[in-house]
């Protein structure tokens, strides 16, 4: 039996999502956008207004977010069935969706900050939903990294005062032509990097996998992490060429690092998280090269197949009694055929198999990227990362679905959970068809791409190479020498995300320890002694003295007359 | 923390412990059963070859070398069962300790009179049993 709260919000969100999709269709066709302004407070010439910006991009994004969240709520009704506080869980997801709406619809930095902070806070609460030490550590890492982004956004708000308004969308392009907005937009870039987990803020995303799987499916794959990309898209007209280059380098590095890391990882959810990181890097690098509509296109499609990928992973984890290690798995395709089909379709879509949704966005991105005149470093990293995506996907497929069964013999693994399968079944149709539909909608005029044959075929070669390497790395034989053990230092470096967790920890640790020292020695030490305590002491002392003076004692009169006597005596002389 | 070395550990136990850790480490690297078995047999051979060493200086050095090798080949992501310490789901579901019920408000307790009456009775019986076994309690609270 479905939980009542789940049922209500599933139907409400689906309904809203469908309507928003229709509105976005209307806005695409009519090429209109709408700004609604609410006056919240009006005191003489001081006004506080709240803006809502509705264009095809925001409505389409919102419809996708709502659709995925409705499916996730439906899915959670079975996945989280045994939880005592499932309603609390659902309400948290709803709060999360509301924060997301706030962020998507705002053209104003202050209201974006409200949504942004809401996302950070609720994602923290969702990460620590399971109350064990792993979750607490992961939650703290998530929250503290996201705080850096919040502070960056606050700084940019204060710098935006210089331009007279926080409604950036109306004047961003104008100011960018007139003067340098460098520092302001660098803060926006930092904020987006923390949310989208780009280098050097990447370590929180794999750690956040301590959250329940439906949360990973909604928050850590399709919505929260794309908030940073969305922010960059909204500000894309303002960035200077040099900032774009910095963004490109960092995003490419993230893409490469996470692709490599996923090949050395054994946790099912972490592999998918690293894959998300790699795709985010790809979106941001596309954005940095100037095609923000392509980045948005990939963002939407990625949201769909990654949400489903996590749902399938959740279903597998559920069946394996919370076991997430792929070394325990194997042969799942025989035991859970339907889930395996869904999982494989998503994985192939991620690799860009022709006519699945991922193909439409990735192929366009790669080919339009190939047409640019970029330097060799960018080309090599980009293409290698594409190959690595295929490599870890096939490694995961081989490990989980096709190799020998490696779990305990007493088990009850199977496609039994009806509700979970239904929600995944609805999503799979979109994973297959949304690429075509969206490419017709967003790019009604086909892009003209001209490439030499070798360039055109290069990506195909890399994909086949990736498949071969992926299958080889998952193979085991008696004569097989374990390369990862042989090159221990290299593989351990790659599996630890190039030691980024250590850097993030020290990044957080250093200000925290300085803060502690300041607090103990300054706030509670010197300031307390010479500040509040000393003030109190001196006031008490002086008031006591004046009280004594005002008591009209004879000896005080005598003392005063003596003082006056001496005073006049010295003045006269 | 649970395994703090509080006493002397014999050489045999050190070797046994090293052997077990080595097998666990192999399990982390070679996750297919038949491959693991092959390498486990090779590992066993390495231990068996040195089983008859009677010179303690040599034996000690061998152990320290073995421990060094174990450390330098430790897997970055050891295989753990989800509910075991260090596993992903360890401590996820916290069973409430029994004494929480003692801190219920009397109004809350009043909703289950039969249960709490029997609970009080059983507590008394338990104290009696305990005192019978270990002698009278000092009466001072902890």
UniProtKB/TrEMBL annotation, chain A:
<feature type="transmembrane region" description="Helical">
    <location>
        <begin position="341"/>
        <end position="360"/>
    </location>
</feature>
<feature type="transmembrane region" description="Helical">
    <location>
        <begin position="181"/>
        <end position="201"/>
    </location>
</feature>
<feature type="domain" description="NADH dehydrogenase subunit 5 C-terminal">
    <location>
        <begin position="392"/>
        <end position="570"/>
    </location>
</feature>
<keyword id="KW-0679">Respiratory chain</keyword>
<feature type="domain" description="NADH:quinone oxidoreductase/Mrp antiporter transmembrane">
    <location>
        <begin position="106"/>
        <end position="384"/>
    </location>
</feature>
<keyword id="KW-0249">Electron transport</keyword>
<dbReference type="InterPro" id="IPR001516">
    <property type="entry name" value="Proton_antipo_N"/>
</dbReference>
<feature type="transmembrane region" description="Helical">
    <location>
        <begin position="554"/>
        <end position="571"/>
    </location>
</feature>
<keyword id="KW-0812">Transmembrane</keyword>
<protein>
    <recommendedName>
        <fullName>NADH-ubiquinone oxidoreductase chain 5</fullName>
        <ecNumber>7.1.1.2</ecNumber>
    </recommendedName>
</protein>
<feature type="transmembrane region" description="Helical">
    <location>
        <begin position="449"/>
        <end position="471"/>
    </location>
</feature>
<keyword id="KW-0520">NAD</keyword>
<dbReference type="GO" id="GO:0005743">
    <property type="term" value="C:mitochondrial inner membrane"/>
</dbReference>
<dbReference type="InterPro" id="IPR010934">
    <property type="entry name" value="NADH_DH_su5_C"/>
</dbReference>
<keyword id="KW-1133">Transmembrane helix</keyword>
<comment type="function">
    <text>Core subunit of the mitochondrial membrane respiratory chain NADH dehydrogenase (Complex I) which catalyzes electron transfer from NADH through the respiratory chain, using ubiquinone as an electron acceptor. Essential for the catalytic activity and assembly of complex I.</text>
</comment>
<dbReference type="Pfam" id="PF06455">
    <property type="entry name" value="NADH5_C"/>
</dbReference>
<dbReference type="Pfam" id="PF00662">
    <property type="entry name" value="Proton_antipo_N"/>
</dbReference>
<feature type="transmembrane region" description="Helical">
    <location>
        <begin position="423"/>
        <end position="443"/>
    </location>
</feature>
<feature type="transmembrane region" description="Helical">
    <location>
        <begin position="295"/>
        <end position="320"/>
    </location>
</feature>
<keyword id="KW-0496">Mitochondrion</keyword>
<keyword id="KW-0999">Mitochondrion inner membrane</keyword>
Automatic annotation (TrEMBL), chain B:
<dbReference type="InterPro" id="IPR008011">
    <property type="entry name" value="Complex1_LYR_dom"/>
</dbReference>
<protein>
    <recommendedName>
        <fullName>NADH dehydrogenase [ubiquinone] 1 beta subcomplex subunit 9</fullName>
    </recommendedName>
</protein>
<dbReference type="InterPro" id="IPR033034">
    <property type="entry name" value="NDUFB9"/>
</dbReference>
<dbReference type="GO" id="GO:0005743">
    <property type="term" value="C:mitochondrial inner membrane"/>
</dbReference>
<keyword id="KW-0496">Mitochondrion</keyword>
<keyword id="KW-0249">Electron transport</keyword>
<feature type="domain" description="Complex 1 LYR protein">
    <location>
        <begin position="13"/>
        <end position="71"/>
    </location>
</feature>
<dbReference type="Pfam" id="PF05347">
    <property type="entry name" value="Complex1_LYR"/>
</dbReference>
<keyword id="KW-0813">Transport</keyword>
<dbReference type="GO" id="GO:0006120">
    <property type="term" value="P:mitochondrial electron transport, NADH to ubiquinone"/>
</dbReference>
<comment type="subunit">
    <text>Mammalian complex I is composed of 45 different subunits.</text>
</comment>
<keyword id="KW-0597">Phosphoprotein</keyword>
<keyword id="KW-0999">Mitochondrion inner membrane</keyword>
<comment type="function">
    <text>Accessory subunit of the mitochondrial membrane respiratory chain NADH dehydrogenase (Complex I), that is believed to be not involved in catalysis. Complex I functions in the transfer of electrons from NADH to the respiratory chain. The immediate electron acceptor for the enzyme is believed to be ubiquinone.</text>
</comment>
<keyword id="KW-0679">Respiratory chain</keyword>
<comment type="similarity">
    <text>Belongs to the complex I LYR family.</text>
</comment>
<keyword id="KW-0472">Membrane</keyword>
<keyword id="KW-0007">Acetylation</keyword>
<dbReference type="InterPro" id="IPR045292">
    <property type="entry name" value="Complex1_LYR_NDUFB9_LYRM3"/>
</dbReference>
């Amino acid at each position: 039996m479905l939980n009542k709260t789940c049922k209500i919000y599933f139907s409400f969100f689906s309904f809203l999502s469908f309507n928003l999709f229709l509105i976005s269709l209307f806005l695409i066709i009519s090429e209109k956008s709408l700004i609604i302004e609410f006056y919240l407070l009006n005191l003489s010439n001081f006004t506080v207004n709240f803006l809502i910006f509705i264009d095809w991009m925001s409505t389409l994004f919102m419809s996708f977010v709502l659709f995925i969240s409705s499916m996730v709520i439906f899915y959670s009704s079975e996945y989280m069935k045994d939880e005592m506080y499932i309603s609390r869980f659902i309400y948290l997801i709803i709060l999360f969706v509301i924060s997301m709406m706030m962020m998507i619809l705002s053209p104003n930095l202050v209201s974006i900050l409200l949504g942004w902070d809401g996302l950070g806070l609720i994602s923290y609460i969702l990460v620590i939903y399971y109350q064990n030490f792993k979750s607490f550590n992961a939650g703290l890492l998530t929250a503290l990294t996201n705080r850096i982004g919040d502070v960056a956004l606050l700084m940019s708000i204060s710098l935006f005062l210089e331009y007279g308004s926080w409604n950036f969308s109306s004047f961003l392009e104008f100011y960018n032509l007139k003067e340098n907005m460098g520092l302001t937009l660098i803060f926006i870039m930092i904020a987006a990097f923390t949310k989208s987990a780009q280098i050097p803020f990447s370590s929180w995303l794999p750690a956040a996998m301590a959250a329940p799987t439906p949360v990973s499916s909604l928050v850590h794959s399709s919505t929260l992490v794309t908030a940073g990309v969305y922010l960059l898209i909204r500000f894309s007209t303002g960035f200077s060429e040099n900032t774009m280059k910095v963004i490109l380098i960092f995003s490419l590095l993230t893409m490469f690092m996470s692709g490599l890391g996923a090949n050395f990882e054994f946790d099912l959810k972490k592999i998918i998280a690293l894959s998300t990181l790699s795709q985010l890097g790809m979106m941001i690098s596309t954005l940095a090269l100037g095609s923000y509509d392509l980045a948005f296109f990939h963002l939407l499609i990625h949201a769909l197949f990654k949400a489903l990928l996590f749902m399938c992973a959740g279903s597998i984890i559920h069946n394996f009694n919370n076991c997430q290690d792929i070394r325990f798995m194997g042969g799942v395709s025989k035991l859970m055929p339907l889930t395996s089909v869904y999982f494989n379709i998503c994985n192939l879509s991620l690799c860009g198999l022709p006519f699945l949704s991922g193909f439409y966005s990735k192929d366009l991105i790669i080919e339009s990227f190939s047409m640019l005149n970029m330097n060799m470093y960018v080309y090599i990293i980009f293409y290698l990362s594409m190959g690595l995506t295929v490599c870890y996907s096939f490694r995961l497929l081989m490990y989980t679905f096709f190799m020998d069964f490696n779990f305990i013999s007493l088990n009850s693994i199977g496609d039994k959970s009806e509700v979970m399968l239904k929600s995944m079944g609805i999503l799979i149709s979109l994973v297959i068809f949304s690429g075509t539909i969206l490419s017709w909608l967003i790019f009604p005029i086909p892009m003209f791409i001209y490439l030499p044959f070798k360039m055109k075929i290069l990506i195909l070669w890399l994909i086949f190479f990736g498949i071969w390497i992926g299958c080889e790395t998952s193979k085991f034989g008696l004569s097989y020498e374990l390369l990862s053990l042989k090159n221990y230092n290299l593989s351990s470096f790659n599996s630890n995300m190039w030691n980024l967790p250590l850097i993030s920890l020290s990044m957080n640790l250093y200000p925290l320890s300085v803060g502690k020292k300041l607090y103990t020695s300054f706030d509670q030490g010197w300031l307390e002694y010479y500040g509040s305590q000393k003030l109190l002491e001196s006031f008490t002392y002086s008031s006591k003295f004046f009280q004594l003076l005002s008591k009209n004692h004879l000896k005080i009169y005598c003392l005063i007359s003596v003082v006056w006597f001496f005073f006049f005596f010295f003045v006269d002389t | 923390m649970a395994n703090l070395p509080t006493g002397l550990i014999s050489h045999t136990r050190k070797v046994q412990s090293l052997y077990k850790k080595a097998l666990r480490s192999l399990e982390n690297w070679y996750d297919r059963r038949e491959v693991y078995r092959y390498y486990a047999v090779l590992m066993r051979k390495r231990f068996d070859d040195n089983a008859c060493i009677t010179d303690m200086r040599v034996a000690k050095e061998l152990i320290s070398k073995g421990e060094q090798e174990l450390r330098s080949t430790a897997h970055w992501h050891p295989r753990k069962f989800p509910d075991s310490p260090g596993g992903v789901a360890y401590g996820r579901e916290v069973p409430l300790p029994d004494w929480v019920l003692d801190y219920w408000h009397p109004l809350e307790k009043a909703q289950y009179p039969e249960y709490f009456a029997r609970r009080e009775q059983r507590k008394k019986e338990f104290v009696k049993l305990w005192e019978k076994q270990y002698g009278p309690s000092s009466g001072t609270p902890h």
